[in-house]
Amino acid sequence: MAKKAVATLQTGDKEKFVKVVKMVKSPKTGAYMFAEEMLPQTDADASLKK
What we know:
Shape: flat
Largest sheet: 2 strands, antiparallel
Structural class: mainly beta
Strand order of the largest sheet: 1-2
Helix content: 10-25%
Strand content: 35-45%
Order of helices and strands: EEH
């Protein structure tokens, strides 16, 4: 059986990261899209308020 590679999102200082998903409207077509970002947990709230 093959081993599954698992990627970790931890740095040396053990800072936790979260995935932030925002729904944004495309200015060209008017359709809604999802914008995904990986941010440190401390910056996640500030990113969502924009």
